[in-house]
Amino acid sequence: MEQMPTRKTKKPIVRLLECPLSKRDVNRSQSQFMQEMFNNLPAEFDSVPVESCAEFVDAIENARKEPELDGLHIVCHGDFTEDGEYLLKIGKEEMPIRRNLNLFKNLGTRFLFMSACGGGMDVMLSRDLLRIARIESLWSYGREITDAQAFAIETLFYTCLYHRARKWTMEEIHRRLCFGLEYLKIDNDKDAIVEPILTLDCLNDLRFDLTVPEKTA
To answer: Considering its fold, how many domains does the chain have in total?
Structure first.
């Protein structure tokens, strides 16, 4: 995988890991959309195309070595197996997240945005990922989501996060977004306020031991 160029900047940097979605989406580029958005924010953006699990692993390893990264944003399809195991679909391959939690160990970014359907439905998986990655916050989606919803939500999220005049906490951003998404009917589920489509887990909210237990035989 091509190494990202080194930079000297005081601006926060967000990196997109963009996985191919489907043949019908070949002309769709979230990286192009996000680049246009970040051109209007006091933050920087770069992207890494990821087409296999091996490239995904390399991209995570490279991100861990770059302390200047503020956030990591992953775009791919997500699904559950019949046994309830959550998978990320990366190209033609699948990566079970629970069996690969150590990949995210000590990730080092302030936040991780998992832009994939259903990632926030498994609450314990989200908390375990947050705990082992030791990031401030994990953002994901609690239901299936359309492209239009994702683009709208993520634009609002980054605007709230990096707008020059605002210094909201992650919890404040989440509360405001959930209200706005329901009010604007971007999240048009009847239970949108109680069970919002956008989920947030914060490290400070975890009340259990942050050490990761060793696997037992």
So the answer is: 1
